[in-house]
Design a protein that fits this description.
51% helix, 2 strands, CFAP97D1/2, 5 helices
Amino acid sequence: MHRSYQPLKPVANRYLQQRWDQQDYENHRRKVGGLGGGGLGGGGLVDHQNQNQYHLRSLNADKRREELLLVSRQNEAIYQRITSRQSEHRRQLWWEDWERTRRRRDQLCRFPRGLAAQRSSRKVKFAAPEGSERSEGFSSAERTGRDP
């Protein structure tokens, strides 16, 4: 039913209305086809010499340009305020506080961080029994089998 002909106005006989509409359509196409390309029986020539040259122009272009300039000036003013302001972050104080904290931590802990790095590179010498050539030094990392 969805493919059946649906007339524009209510009719008693759809088949007959379809035939009439198809006949009107073919009649119209025949008339349009006989005109050619130029309109009312003309030869299809178009006068390209007499065309008006219209340039598209927005009616609110000036207003939009003024708004753009205003926004640009405002952005520049905001940028100047931001760049001229001194930082409120006191980096030097933070660094000094961190150094103080680190020194206190190293004083309080049993094995300070700085000494652990020094100990791993220290060589330990073992006394070899007499008659053997084994008196080489081993680092603590080699002795324990761990990487420094």
